[in-house]
Design brief:
Blueprint: H1 2-7, E1 15-20, H2 34-49, E2 54-58, E3 70-71, H3 81-87, E4 93-94, E5 102-105, H4 109-113, H5 126-132, E6 136-140, H6 148-155, E7 161-172, E8 175-186, E9 192-194, H7 197-205, E10 210-214, E11 217-223, H8 224-237, E12 243-245
Parallel strand pairs: 1-2, 1-6, 3-7
Antiparallel strand pairs: 2-5, 4-5, 6-11, 7-8, 9-12, 10-11
Helix pairs in contact: 2-3, 6-8
Length: 248
């Protein structure tokens, strides 16, 4: 598995943001335990980036959106079991964003997650820092997609999203404090549905998207600056190029 990640360009020292759906790969040797199964994939990612690399895993909670306290240490990820395994694995540290938190492990972890903006998708967010570091967007078993695209949508101020402020409480290190965050949310009146086929094809044509089949699943990766560049060109021509609009 580590060899597979290296074959699509993941190298020691890289910063990698990983979206995952490892269940699509099917059985892994004789492993039957769910936690052990997910840990094998997580450890493969960590081994691929090595001691000098940093792995970043989303642990989104949308806590403030659901009027809940965000507990940095205890609030579970709402994404999938892989992200929960990462959250609970020793050595990973978590950002305090109550909507788009991530966990990270590696020498760049603290620089990536500390003192982030209260604008979830904008300037000085985790996404801008991943862009500045030109991190890999690794799609591990998932379809072609990345939360990083929402950062690009905010940068270009697409008309089917708008700023909305959410306020609530954060619990971190035994302290509880109030805070407000701005989230560039979808306009539900327009009901924009993701449509990434054109972006996917252009990324392949430009040879910046690396793709390989592993068992019943697919692994893909694209650097943040490449994804920003191709997406930006599309949005400059058509601000609706990443979605289909079907008004509700």
């Amino acid at each position: 598995m580590v060899h597979t990640l290296k074959s699509i360009g993941i190298e020691h020292g890289d910063i990698v943001f990983v979206h995952s759906d490892v269940g699509v790969f099917g059985r892994l040797a004789d492993i039957k335990d769910r936690k052990e199964y997910n840990s094998e994939f997580l450890n493969a990612c960590l081994e691929a980036v090595g001691d000098k690399g940093t792995l970043v895993v989303p642990t989104f909670t949308y806590s403030f959106c659901d009027c809940k306290i965000f507990d940095v240490e205890k609030s579970p990820s709402t994404l999938n079991y892989f992200t929960e395994v990462a959250r609970k694995t020793n050595g990973f540290v978590r950002s305090d964003d109550p909507i788009f938190s991530v966990v990270a492990k590696g020498p760049a972890a603290n620089d990536l997650i500390n003192n982030l903006s209260t604008c979830c998708l904008g300037k000085n967010s985790i996404w801008e820092r991943l862009y500045q570091k030109n991190a890999h967007n690794l799609m591990f078993g998932t379809k072609f997609d990345s939360a990083f695209l929402h950062y690009i949508e905010e940068y270009f101020r697409v008309p089917y999203r708008y700023d909305k402020v959410f306020s609530g409480k954060i619990k971190n290190g035994g302290k509880i404090y109030k805070k407000s965050y701005t989230y560039y949310v979808r306009d539900l009146k327009l009901n924009p549905e993701p449509f990434l086929e054109e972006l996917y094809q252009k990324s392949l044509e430009n040879k910046v998207l690396k793709k390989i089949i592993l068992g019943a699943g697919t692994i893909m990766t694209i650097r943040s600056k490449d994804l920003f560049s191709i997406t930006g060109k599309m949005l400059k021509k058509n601000l609706y190029s990443l979605v289909k609009i079907s008004k509700s």
